[in-house]
Amino acid sequence: MQLYNFFNSSTSYRVRIALALKGLSYEHHGVNIRIGEQATESHIKLNPAKGVPVLITDDGQTLTQSMAILDYLELTYPDSPLLPKDTLERARVLEICHMIASDMHPVNNLRILGYLKQQLEVTDEQKTAWYQHWIQEGFEALESRLNEYGYGDYCFGDQATLADCCLVPQVANALRFGCDLSSFTKVLSIYEHCKKNTVFQQAAPNQQPDFIA
Length: 213
Ligand SMILES: N[C@@H](CCC(=O)N[C@@H](CS)C(=O)NCC(=O)O)C(=O)O
Fold this sequence. Notes:
- The structure is a single chain.
- The chain is of the alpha+beta class.
- It folds into two domains: 2-80, Glutaredoxin; 87-199, Glutathione S-transferase Yfyf (Class Pi), Chain A, domain 2.
- The protein is 55% helix and 7% strand.
- It contains nine helices and four strands; from the N terminus they run βαβαββααααααα.
- The protein has a four-stranded mixed sheet with strand order 2-1-3-4, with helices on one face.
- The protein is globular and about 45 Å long.
- The mean pLDDT is 98.
- Glutathione is lined by residues 9-11, 33, 38, 50-53, 65-67, 101, 109-111.
- Glutathione (GSH) is lined by residues 9-11, 33, 38, 50-53, 65-67, 101, 109-111.
């Protein structure tokens, strides 16, 4: 497999965690979204939505959208499952994933922040206020849901699931942007637990070949 990704991209990081948890190797291709490599002609051929990650499967198929990639990996490589078999439990895991992937990530994506700044000409303070507002809203909901249904050291139990694959990169991004997450104690305790896992560490931004300090 080949993975087109960027070290600090949270959607890429989700997929890297899942690949690591499943023990799957892949060829890394760095796409520097800070300098617009996601919008080059060659990348648009892979992903017309101008984003990362992109997975090229072992049989040469091109897949975009991190949640679709995670689903593909789960079904194609069922060892070390990241979704529970029980239907309700599976839905709970996916609920957490989509709180992050569908609600939180899109409004704070690089292109959105860029549009606010360049086209709508908001100030840096307004852009930060926007970012922090959606982080606060999103994490409040996440904290509440995890307190209600989560259990164990990971989001659900003592084994990592796709919920943890989505949670860790979102927390890492929020901390990188200087958000105060101290009131989200459940979210933070899961994050800290995952960070101790060497498999999660393997997928971390600072372990990637394209990492820039
Ligand atoms: N929904 C897509 C989002 C992909 C996406 O937009 N990724 C970000 C990085 S986390 C990106 O490439 N952003 C580039 C940009 O906004 O220009 C997914 O989950 O794969």
